Amino acid sequence: MPIVSPVDQGGFSIRLSSAAMLLALAGCTTHQVSSTPTHEQLLTEVACVDVPAGEKRPEFGCFNVATVTGLEFSQPSVYWHLHTFATRKAAEAAKSATGIVVEEDGRAWLSEFGPQDAAPQGGEAIAVVGPLQLPSAKNYAAVLSYAVMRPGDSSRVHTHPGPEGWYVLAGEQCLETPTGANRASAGATMTAPPNVPMELNVTGTELRRAFALVIHDSTQHRGIPSSWKPSGACRR
Fold first, then answer.
1. 179 Cβ partners below 8 Å, 6+ apart?
2. 157-174: per-residue pLDDT in tens?
3. What is the number of other CB atoms lying within 10 angstroms of the CB of residue 40?
4. Taking Cα atoms as reference points, which of 216, 213, 206 lies closest to residue 102?
5. First-to-final CA distance of the chain
6. What pLDDT band is residue 118 in, cutting at 50, 70 and 90?
7. Reduced to 3 states, what is the DSSP secondary structure of residue 180?
8. Dihedral of alpha carbons 211, 214, 220, 222, sign
9. Which stretches within the chain are classed as H helix?
10. Over residues 177-188, mean pLDDT
11. Confidence class for position 36, pLDDT limits 50, 70, 90
């Protein structure tokens, strides 16, 4: 909230004593630095979006940070292997032709997809997410997203034409689907099958940072709005 100085109203000058002015300024400053978003500031209907090259990313939201296309899998399910490396160069050197390297949270991350025992070589193994049950398709696209959201923020209600997996770096999340609520906190993983309506909510008291991966039929869009109505199970 901007600090408002005394103004003239109706020809009458409003004057504050020095003490009153200090109190007013102190009140405004305290409000400005508050880390708790108001109801009006909360993000709802969040969808992961592309950020054009050279454009500054907003502070909060969900952002598509990498996409790989033309993936072919012989098995009905795959696992997402997530490793970190000291440098992007080291991660790129370990990457397969279908791997993804991004830099987020001060680290270089390598994502690879395949059987449970097909982990990449080198780096630090962070998580194995899965199994991710694949729909039938000729080939697939994998979209990796990175989200920074505050307690009380939520996604739009949507579905994906493929499985989704998460790795939570910080904070807590709760995913509501027609079967109920599923919760995960920092260091945990989560999965959801294809074509299931869902709403993701940020719970707890800390900023939530997380990676999300959707592997879908490359002829379809990554996410589709849904008319399903959540019950609010994540808020109870």
1. none
2. 999 999 999 999 999 999
3. 5
4. 213
5. 31
6. confident
7. strand
8. negative
9. 18-32, 88-94
10. 98
11. low
